[in-house]
Amino acid sequence: MTRIVYANLGYLRGIDGSFRQHVGRFWRHVYTPIKAQTTSISQLTAVVEELSPDLCCLVELDRGSITNRFFDQLPTIGGKLFPVSVAHGKYGTERILSPLHFSYGKSNAFLAKAPVEAADRYLTDGKKKLVYDIRMTGPTTNLRILVVHLSLVVTERARQIEELAGWVAEEDASTIVVGDFNVFRGERELKPLLASGHLFHANRGMEPTFRFGPWRAALDTCLISEDLRSSACVTIVDQPYSDHQMLVMDV
């Protein structure tokens, strides 16, 4: 079995999405104390250590910004469990940010127990462009994983999903597409990815993965190729330090 974990960390601010924490800790959006971050990291690493995934895919990780006292969260997450750790800014290589810019340091990352083949790819549209294109290969494993974090703007997001569908079609391979799709309009937004029949929505009908006060939405999505359908299992794990929940994929 190959286990993959995906999580939107919410920059590890320790805000669980409830109104009580959004109001009581609103200042953490502009200044997150290091103690709050290390507490959140301890909660995250405890869950990851228990799950013991082969690959851990993370979005909304802070490599050090003006809003978190320039604290690099990555080195304290992986530990000895993940000898491979990679993180890059999610806004594209052509956008050079000042260290004092609000978005500086805002990154996506992946951690792996063994070396993997991976490429950084950048969507044409939107501000959040980074997509990790990862290959896991071995005696019993041959998987392609695309890790995404799509735009909040519906028109930009539609073009990003169309482009992603083209990338998936590049190979007839066992594929997982996972990430924060921000599909506020529901599964109909995923139609370009599902139209060919190559992928199915593995966490369709499961509990919502995002919370804002009483409002819930299924924004974090796992699409798995049909050849994996009978052997794949997706579960959801709560993250008290984030307004998103974690997806655990066993193949």
Describe the protein in words:
It is a single chain. 19% of the residues lie in helices and 32% in strands. Helix 4 links the parallel strand 7 and strand 8. It is built from 5 helices and 14 strands. It has a 6-stranded mixed beta sheet with strand order 3-4-2-1-14-13, with no helix packed on it. Strands 5-6-7-8-12-9 form a 6-stranded mixed beta sheet, with no helix packed on it. A two-stranded antiparallel sheet has the order 10-11. The chain is of the alpha+beta class and 251 residues long. The chain is globular, with a radius of gyration of 17 Å.
Show the helix and strand layout.
Blueprint: E1 3-8, H1 19-24, H2 34-51, E2 55-62, H3 75-78, E3 84-89, E4 106-112, E5 117-122, E6 130-137, E7 142-149, H4 154-168, E8 175-180, H5 191-194, E9 199-201, E10 210-212, E11 215-217, E12 220-225, E13 233-237, E14 246-250
Parallel strand pairs: 1-2, 7-8
Antiparallel strand pairs: 1-14, 2-4, 3-4, 5-6, 6-7, 8-12, 9-12, 10-11, 13-14
The SS-based structural class is: alpha+beta
| Largest sheet descriptor | 6 strands, mixed
Q: Report strand order across the widest sheet.
A: 3-4-2-1-14-13
Give the fraction of residues assigned to helices: 10-25%
Low-confidence stretches: none
Q: Can you give the mean pLDDT?
A: 94
